[in-house]
Amino acid sequence: MPKIIIGFTGPIASGKDASQKYLSEKYGAISFRFSTIIRDILQRLSLEINRLNLSRLSSVLRENFSEDLFAKVIAKDVISSPAELIIVDGIRRPADIQYLRDVDNFYLVSIDADPKIRYERLIKRKENIDDENKTYEQFLADHQLETELSIPLIMAQANYQINNNQSKEDLYRQLDKIISTIKL
């Protein structure tokens, strides 16, 4: 069976991580996440892992070492992985899919939900240190960070779209449908 690569794009707290976890548990997918490299560097430098620091470090690295820096690393990891189903989480910029589009069986999936729903999910999940106490206005302001600005452009290029305004079960049904369509 050929390798299948699914890339997730979408705004903050739209359900990308929940989708990745579900596909890992149900289908044995392995995942690569763009932000893992940045989180590792912040942790190593003993800097707070929050959205602003993630955005700043990403921008500094891309500005100084090339816009496609992370895209090259992720594409190399995907190509060398022996897994049959691979998830690439956190595609945000045109450069992020530049190399993945050249890999056979790459599918881009856009995940979106209403901003109020995403905000509630964000403060519940507490992924970043500043999430729990973030106001709705701060959440909306995060969408204006440099790392978030190209997401709508990338979402428009998706092969599949998921509306994640309902339950996790509804999200899982949509993911199962995409997997069955791809495997046909």
The total count of helices amounts to 9
Q: Briefly, what CATH class? A: Alpha Beta
Provide the spatial order of strands within the biggest beta sheet.
Answer: 2-3-1-4-5
Average predicted confidence as pLDDT: 92
Largest pleated sheet: 5 strands, parallel
CATH fold descriptor = Rossmann fold
- What is the multimeric organization of the chains shown? single chain
Uncertain residue ranges:
none
Description:
- There is one protein chain.
- With 184 residues, the protein is an alpha/beta fold.
- It has a single domain (4-183), classed as P-loop containing nucleotide triphosphate hydrolases (Rossmann fold, 3-Layer(aba) Sandwich), CATH 3.40.50.
- It has helices at 16-27, 34-44, 51-65, 69-80, 94-98, 115-125, 136-142, 151-155, 168-183; strands at 4-9, 30-33, 85-89, 106-112, 160-163.
- Strands 2-3-1-4-5 form a five-stranded parallel beta sheet, with helices on both faces.
- Helix 1 (16-27) packs across helix 9 (168-183) and helix 2 (34-44) packs across helix 3.
SSE topology:
Layout: E1 4-9, H1 16-27, E2 30-33, H2 34-44, H3 51-65, H4 69-80, E3 85-89, H5 94-98, E4 106-112, H6 115-125, H7 136-142, H8 151-155, E5 160-163, H9 168-183
Parallel strand pairs: 1-3, 1-4, 2-3, 4-5
Helix pairs in contact: 1-9, 2-3
